[in-house]
Amino acid sequence: MARRKTPINEAISFRPRRSPAPKSSGGSGGAGSPGEEPAGGEQEGLRDLRAETRRACGGAALINTPTHRLLGARERGGLTPSRASRACLGARLLPSGPGETLDVHQARGYVAKFVGSGNLFLVGFQDRRVRVYDTGGANAARARWRPVKEIFARQLCWTITDTAVSSDDRTLAYSTISPVVRLVNLQAGGGLQSVQNVTDIHEAVDLSAAPGGGARGGPDPDLGEGGERFGVWSICLSRDGTRLMAGTSACSVVAYDLQAGRPAFSLEGAHDDDVNAVAFLDGSGQVVVSGSDDSTIKLWDTREETRASGVLYGHTEGVTCVAPRGDGRYLVSNGKDQKAKLWDVRRMGGDGQIGASGVVVPQRYRVSRKSFDYRWQRYPYKPEKVCHPHDSSVMTFMGHQVLHTLIRVNWSPLETTGQRFIYTGSACGSLIVYDILSGEVETVMQKHGSVVRDCDWHPTEPVIASAGWDGRVVRWARFREEGGEGAREPWGDAATYASSSGDELHFDPMLDSGSEWTDEAEDEDYSSPDSEDSTGSG
Q: Could you give the domains of the chain?
């Protein structure tokens, strides 16, 4: 039976939850902190999500079956190689092991994304370069990634803050701390030394002229063609490629009509502080999610263009990233309160909900009263471990560090994992994967020597790639040892390792164990190795 989807404007009643006790290792960067769950009867949304994930992974029986037995059963014909079974197998073959440095750049990496089916991987650096790699597609775990194009950003201001690629993989949009977003042909030219890489046309999309727009602070000729004093922290493209959305430092969410070649509208005053993240809730392109330094997440119906359809309360500091699951219901976020949160949009509230005691819930709840600027000053040594009194999230994940910059979070792929995991970078140089079924850390991967702002999971292969502030581009894949010292082969077709003669599979224990890195330090300094001279975040 098809599941009824709840309309975006059908907000359920806001019910305060009991705040869980702060965890001793929550904000310290220790990797072993489990996720916090709502108490009592407030787990409905989480139960639904876990049930959906189990179905996507082939059911609870498959999840609890050892991987080697699943592979052996498939080899003997006892397990139908359906999409569900492949998803379950992929969930057990997580990227792990020692990371492999693929490239080293002389500038900080701010953006790391696979393009489309995963044939291309792009990294945006602080020195105005967007480097594009050929990953080998289905061989992304073992192929040598080859740089095929280097795009030189126009009128860069501080750094490339975000990128977005059209659904046909042809158009790259990139933003900087300027009201002008640029569009460039991703497939034109070739080779790092190609003249066309330098002479590419970068179409200017000026957001400062959006109806209802306007910016704070007046004109500034150094900040883009429009001369307005605001920058863009986040961008996204609709699936049909007709609309670009942007979150700005002017507290606004701006829409640009790419077909008409003009701004569509601007939600001025959408938030009370910088809008750090924007994303489309699903493939329809009608509902937009925004996250802000005012600690709130808002949902907008672009057909109304006037007010938020709902608000999600729970973060106690600024929101750095929002990532919808794509089903129109669930999303995850990262916050400067050192927490990642899982949300069910049916639990969203309005701008003035009545709590159980009859008291109106305030629109904002921010813990920090410190006088510091997150963009260029060091974060306080000990972030305050408190909970929002009206937290509507369904799960909280702790163990990573969201310091110095707008660190991203995302869902694992549907095809290979059933979206069972969420993963994030960390200011300590780690990549951390959380399991939404257990609420615990699944694995920690350490290779970078500095902040990992962004990372991405290959859509069809057990591969995660990242870019860090140390300039490294790193790849993680599942490997086994074979053929003596130094010989490594990634796990490929499972049938290669299945027994064709016996009832049991001859397997390598590395398949089920893998290597993990954990950080047990309770009182580790939150400062980055190069935070002393940090002068911005983006």
A: 44-55+93-350+358-478+514-533 (2.130.10.10), 57-89+480-508 (no CATH)
